[in-house]
Predict the structure.
Amino acid sequence: MNRKTLVLPAVVGLLAPVLAACGSTDSGAGGGNAIVVGTTDQLVASEENPAPLDPAIGYEAGVWNVLRQTVQTLTTVPGGGGEPVPEAAQSCTFTDNANESYRCTLRAGLKFADGTPVTAEDVKFSIQRVIDINSDS
């Protein structure tokens, strides 16, 4: 068989899905079979859980997904894993041989949403609050 005879069907076969995907002119409204990307979890405040988005106690997957996109942490683990890297911190390191004392230096110029500067005392308060809650999670 001639090579030129094989090229045209191969090109058509490769381009058909692309062209089919570009063929619709509607905006997807009214289809009824929508593809949902992300979460459909509902985060509802209740008597048992008065603050579902509280970063000190929110460890469920849906809550964590929202928090990870909206709050900053001292360090973060890069995609794919590895050693934590500074995020709100300028640098972090263990300060003892037993790896029990971890010290971070905050980046300069950090501010809360209302413009109030973030201080080391604020970070300490947040960490102590998690410890004081003493949640099973």
